[in-house]
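Reopening this ticket.

The earlier resolution said the output was attached, but the attachment link was broken on my side. Pasting everything inline this time so it's all in one place.
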Amino acid sequence: MRVRHVPALPYREVSAAIVTLHDSRGWVGAKLVFEFQAAPRWRGGGPPATRDEFDLGAMKWTIPDTRM
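Inline output:
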């Protein structure tokens, strides 16, 4: 199997990509994975997320003030 490297999405295009993804008919799991992978990059490499911060039913990630 050949490895094919794909260039990273430029930082300035991430927000638009997430909006496009949310508007698509794609599988919700793929949407969540993409957003989850992108979000920690915006946070500047702080402490990792904890499981209780995620509300998968509401598709929401709430970061407590103490970790911002």
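Reporter confirms the inline version is readable. The chain has a mean pLDDT of 80. The radius of gyration is 14 Å.
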